[in-house]
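Follow-up to my earlier ticket, as requested here are the two runs.
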Amino acid sequence: MTQPSAVGVLAPKNPLARLGAATIRGISELGGLALFTVFGLRHIFSLPLQIKKIVQQVYFIGVKSIFVIALIGLFTGMVLGLQGYYTLVKFGSEGLLGAAVALSIIRELGPVLTAIMITGRAGSSMAAEIGIMRISEQIDALTTMDIDPMRYLIAPRLAAAIISFPLLTAIFDVIGILGGYLTGVIMLGINPGVYFQRIDASVVLADVSGGFVKSLVFALLVAAVCCYQGYFAHMRPGGFGAKGVSLATTSAVVVSCVSILAADYALTTFLL
């Protein structure tokens, strides 16, 4: 398994040399992450399948995230309903509120906010757990016992993320639209038939499938980045031991969130 280098411990004084060193380090990290992801995905399908471990991870990543995803979806829909109403009423188009809320949530906010919330709740935990296993030499012990750590630790988490993200995104979408209904129809008096009729007329299959494509890509990004940061916590140049795990966890969350937003822009450009 390719490991990242510890370039940067002795940083050169020349600014151009530092820029070059940072570029090489970034490319090395991207290459290591790509290989790490490929190895992890390959082990998902190696026999015998690890069904029990995948179900345990689906419970941790998916089931335990339902409450927070539902809560964020509800408030997001309510805020969109409120803001959308007072914007559309200026143009005499408040009847379009249902379509505005549904399209905003299904196309963008549902996949993105779901991925960011799972990163904060489950992704950080994955990075910390694997990082602690690394610095306490439990991963080395697995290797000594002829157990492949990539198959035992990483593949079930990748598979569980790929299963959980689209399901949680669907829950977010439905509750977000109901949140818009609470604000627009119950509080502000829009006709409920008009609210749902506009949604039915505006949302097409491509909108829904595009949202699920995004959630699958985000699942792979979040799981791979968080596992990678934890797996190589002992290689970080900024600290070792507990500090290395702390830095790895922080880096996992930051890199995952930035990757989600960058990937969202690229996918939106491709899907439009």
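Run two:
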Amino acid sequence: MNPEPFLQLDRVIHEKGRLAIMSLLAASPSLLFTEVRDTLRMTDGNATAHLRTLLEAGYISVTKSLEGGRASTTYALTATGRRAFAHYVDLLGQIVAQTRPPDA
């Protein structure tokens, strides 16, 4: 087995909560904080911590606005985040391919 794909996995994305957020945002143009939190069944604090880590890595962007007098916070993948996530998924594909029997 070639260990290289394992060694290249992005530790920022690899954590379960952040991988879930990246996957969710990859499937949507943008999502409200409450949509991320509720879809992934996270607490406010847990979602905030993971979103902050992804923001600091430059993988997501945040937009804050007022809609109908209520504050709204929206997150989206950045181009850097989209590339990092695609690379991460490619590495996972390589890892899975190594586990298949030769005649499968």
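The only thing I checked on run two: The longest strand covers residues 60-67. Let me know what else you need.
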